[in-house]
Specification:
single chain; 6-stranded mixed β-sheet; 40 helices; alpha/beta; 60% helix
């Protein structure tokens, strides 16, 4: 109760002040005649005209109109009259919208006692002003005062509304929701803001000023970890706002900023940046560099930091901080958020001491204003502990983290994800401080609770959520602790969680179906998996459509599809729980043990696990007879930068997405330094010792490493050249593992495989290729029919068929290569399935929201076999050959490797894949696939056959440019 004393004292002083003011006003009123009927009528007309203006769209015009009203009223009423205070109260809104927050609060506090002195006639207006004060106090981070005042206003508004629709009641609900949200009471905040939205919808026409209230709900849902609900609510909010607001209205920026936060949470910073910049542009166009517009700049800064664009991120964050400090003060919440964004960017640039200094200032400011249990005080200590950890100051890091855990313990349950993240971080600190036993006990306990939380979440059928993203971050700290303790088994367990991906889940889904005790149960499990995946895909599509302002009818159609998919997921989940409860828990709920992995490896095999994280790169090299574990300080962003350099050295973005390039395209300047640095990071001495002499190397990685074929890594040379490079593919047969569970799946050996059938689809009937060298992707072609034909694909498929000599063969090319033909074919009969066509990424064609393979367009189909359509196929192939561009690239919702076309085929039943990481030249793709299959047909292991084909291209140079990495290295063998 002590924290309310200051507010009570302030209220007492205010009462004394307005008693004096009221006495003066009464004395003055006695000397002035009341306005005439005509004067009052004119005043009312001016009020109505001013009130009809949209304060959000044009606050300057709104201010001018009310200033004119106030000037005229001042000729009718004496100074201090409550009628003048009533009118001037509208200028509080104008002050706030134009960025003068402190001025707005000062004006409101001056006017409040004058309205109180007016008695019952002005009580309603006094409550309107109090509602505005709540918003101002929240903006200035005076949360405790705001919450108390908001509760009083809500009680008054409900009592006086007489059951009629009331924007005032809605505003009061919303303000109290904001206050509860700031105290971490998310469920209460969501309940209150839903009541606010319901109240606004009671009007025949939703008022314009209700827009911010509708925009709050998706924010609350996102913050509480309810990602899917947040996306759906953002769609509903966008639809509502577009119905009540004109195009370009600044209130639309609020929801766009929320969409940017969702995209950033999903790990899609480039899209988040684009949407956040749109929000800034809309707000600046109407408000100028106001605090509202500038606060959106903080989101742009965060998105830039996540992309490694630290210099620009720092500049934007500092600009925003300076403007907000001037407008709101140095300790206002929006200012502090901008400063934390600056700290993040500064730390990412490498200046950790400066980042610590900024974060310490933020923590001190919040400690001075917020109650101990406030979420921002706790999270601020988490951030400070992380920065201190990076600097190596373990004592200070431990003190900050223990304080955060102590504050959490009084409010949050033991299995709260943020609490468990803090426990894992504290364990890593303790182990590095010398308390290995205590740290291990702490991280093992935290890891067990994290496993339980993750299992409960996945048992719902959810494919992705804000909560799962938080859990994965917690596993990153747990891995750090295990590595610091030198516990290889524990590190292997946590690394699996960090490496988990959509492609890995696809493998586990297929494995669970294929090993179900009854085919009928396997089919029931598939129905549940299909519904969950469809929900995920529709969620991603909604985000894209909302972010680019798509047609309302299209967004509504997706919403209906999501609702239907949600119903199917609920029904199939209930049926599965009733008929096969053992299958209700998704495969992979229990991580693979290190001993299991070692037992699954053959004597000629080694496995490299590379887990990139925010604090460094963790490496585990494992074989049946040895193991090594080591770390590198290279962060996720450091590794991503090297991967980007290496890929850019292959021709850059243009070479990866062009539909057709001239034959005379010059060779790219290969980045030998980036290749060597990545080789040094991934293969230090301890790792080389385990993998040396092992002909077959299995690779499991995460983040940007999944977008890179490891074949083109090579040790450093004094005078680097393509001819002298010792490519990794020379020393090892390379296999990309989409999931470590692939180790336990049955493997087909050359002696045991049975070649039942071969189905080939490709060479779609498209535009003639002309004299350009065709590439199997698209950029400038905006319709499927405009894509160039691929003359090498039909002979490629027929040569592959001849090399395999399968008993059953079906080759669908030209006009036969349609989507309908793929759907109608019995693909379960094919041991080998091959596609030779264009591979498209999301956005390569107008309206394409997910990766796709190009087929011959034939009504009613569009000629695009999308990833979601591939996932609905029934396949039982030992090998799927994807001789197309970007088939190992990311998907619309996941930019990690294998998340698009490759994932779709793994889910549909493809056990092993041949997939590409970038745009593939038509002749190069044909050569690699044919040479690989020829050797496979003669009994070779497919991954070994791919290696031989690559080496023949490098050494034999069968065509011009064959020895260029861009041509021989794009394909990887994915599987078991």
């Amino acid at each position: 109760m002590r924290r309310h004393v200051g507010l009570a004292a302030a209220a007492t002083l205010s009462m004394l002040w307005f008693q004096e003011a009221a006495a003066g006003a009464v004395s003055a009123m006695a000397e002035v005649a009341p306005p005439s009927v005509a004067q009052r009528a004119k005043l009312e007309r001016m009020k109505k005209a001013a009130d009809d203006l949209d304060e959000g769209a044009d606050p300057a015009a709104y201010r001018k109109a009310w200033e004119d009203v106030l000037a005229y009223a001042a000729t009718l009423y004496p100074p201090g009259h409550p009628e003048l205070a009533w009118i001037e109260g509208e200028l509080v809104t104008a002050d706030y919208l134009q960025g003068d927050i402190k001025g707005a609060l000062a004006r409101a506090e001056r006017l409040a006692p004058l309205l109180e002195a007016g008695g019952a006639a002005y009580r309603d207006r006094r409550m309107e002003l109090a509602n505005g004060q709540v918003v101002i106090l929240m903006t200035l981070s005076e949360h405790d005062k705001a919450r108390k005042l908001a509760a009083e206003v809500l009680e008054w508004r409900i009592a006086t509304s007489r059951g009629e629709p009331s924007s005032n009641v809605a505003a009061a609900y919303s303000n109290l929701a904001n206050a509860e949200f700031e105290f971490g009471n998310f469920d209460k905040a969501i309940e209150l803001v839903r009541k606010a939205n319901a109240e606004d919808r009671r009007h025949a026409k939703i008022p314009v000023n209700a827009a911010p209230r509708f925009s709050n709900l998706p924010v609350y849902l996102l913050q509480s970890g309810r990602l899917e609900e947040a996306v759906e609510q953002a769609r509903i909010t966008q639809e509502t706002l577009e119905a009540i607001l004109p195009a370009g209205h600044p209130f639309l920026a609020i929801n766009l900023n929320t969409l940017a936060r969702i995209l950033l949470t999903l790990g899609r910073p480039a899209e988040a940046e684009a949407v956040a910049r749109k929000a800034v542009d809309i707000a600046v166009a109407r408000f100028g560099q106001s605090q509202q517009a500038v606060s959106y700049m903080a989101m742009v800064s965060q998105a830039l930091t996540a992309q490694g664009k630290t210099r620009e991120a720092i500049d934007i964050a500092r600009e925003a901080s300076a403007i907000l400090t001037n407008a709101l003060g140095p300790d206002a919440q929006r200012t502090l958020i901008a400063r934390e964004g600056e700290a993040d960017a500064v730390a990412a640039s490498g200046d950790v001491p400066q980042a610590i200094a900024i974060q310490q200032d933020v923590v001190a400011a919040r400690d001075a204003k917020l109650p101990p249990f406030h979420r921002d005080r706790i999270i601020g200590r988490d951030r400070l502990s992380t920065l201190l950890f990076r600097r190596g100051d373990m004592a200070a890091a431990a003190a900050a983290q223990r304080e955060a855990q102590k504050l959490r313990g009084a409010t949050f349950p033991a299995d709260d994800v943020a609490t468990l993240t803090g426990e894992a971080r504290l364990a890593a600190i303790e182990i590095r401080s010398g308390d290995r036993a205590g740290g291990l006990r702490r991280v093992e306990a935290a890891g067990q609770l994290l496993d339980e939380r993750l299992a409960r979440l996945r048992a719902t059928g959810a494919r992705r959520s804000g909560l799962e993203i938080e859990i994965r971050a917690a596993y990153g700290w747990a891995l750090d602790a295990a590595v610091a303790a030198g516990d290889e088994a524990l590190a292997f367990r946590f690394a699996q969680r960090l490496l988990d991906s959509s492609a890995g889940r696809a493998v586990r889904d297929e494995l669970a179906r294929s090993t179900a005790r009854d085919p009928r149960l396997g089919e029931l499990l598939r129905r549940r998996q299909d519904a969950a995946i469809e929900l995920e895909a529709l969620l991603d599509r909604q985000l894209r459509l909302a972010g680019r302002g798509a047609d309302k009818a299209l967004i509504d159609e997706v919403a209906l599809q999501r609702k239907a998919a949600a119903g199917r997921l609920a029904d199939s989940s209930a049926a599965l729980a009733a008929q096969a409860p053992e299958l209700a828990t998704p495969a992979g709920a229990v991580p693979l043990a290190l001993d299991q992995a070692r037992a699954a490896l053959k004597s000629e095999e080694a496995m490299l696990v590379a887990a990139a994280g925010e604090r460094g790169l963790t490496l585990l090299a494992i074989s049946s007879d040895s193991i090594a574990m080591t770390t590198s300080p290279a962060t996720t962003q450091d590794v991503a930068g090297l991967v980007a350099r290496l890929r850019d050295g292959l021709g850059g973005p243009a070479a990866q997405t062009r539909a057709a390039l001239a034959d005379s395209r010059p060779a790219s300047a290969f980045d030998f330094d980036a290749s060597a640095r990545l080789h040094e990071l991934l293969f230090p001495a301890a790792i080389r010792k385990v993998v040396a002499g092992k002909p077959r190397l299995l690779m499991a990685s995460n983040a940007s490493l999944t977008t890179l074929p490891f074949a083109l890594l090579a040790p450093r040379q004094d005078a680097p050249s393509l001819a002298r490079a010792r490519w990794l593919i020379r020393d090892h047969v390379l296999v990309t593992l989409p999931s470590l569970y692939s180790l336990t799946a049955p493997r087909t050996t050359p002696g045991s495989r049975e070649l039942r059938g071969f189905v080939a689809i490709g060479a779609p009937d498209l535009a003639p290729s002309g004299t350009a060298m065709a590439y199997r992707s698209a950029e400038m072609a905006r319709k499927v029919r405009d894509l160039p034909s691929l003359p090498a694909t039909e002979p490629e498929l027929r040569t592959v068929a001849q090399a395999l000599a399968a008993p059953e063969q079906s080759i669908l090319t030209g006009k036969l290569a349609t989507e309908a033909a793929v759907r109608e074919a019995d693909l379960t009969r094919a041991s080998v399935l091959a596609f030779a066509t264009h591979g498209l990424m999301a956005g390569d064609l107008d309206g394409l929201d997910e990766p796709a393979l190009v087929m011959t367009p034939a009504a009613p189909d569009d000629g695009l076999l999308t990833a979601s359509e591939i996932m609905r196929l029934r396949i039982a192939a030992d090998w799927v050959i994807l001789s197309a561009c970007n088939t190992a690239a990311g998907g619309s919702s996941d930019d990690s490797g294998l998340a698009g076309i490759a994932r779709a085929f793994l889910y549909a039943g493809g056990r092993n894949l041949l997939a590409s990481h970038w745009a593939v030249r038509d002749d190069a793709a044909a050569y690699l696939s044919v040479e690989t299959v020829r050797r496979y047909g003669r009994g070779a292991d497919p991954a070994g056959a791919l290696r031989k084909a690559m080496l023949r291209m490098i050494d034999g140079k069968p065509f011009d440019g064959a020895d260029q990495p861009v041509n021989w290295a794009p394909f990887v063998f994915v599987g078991r």
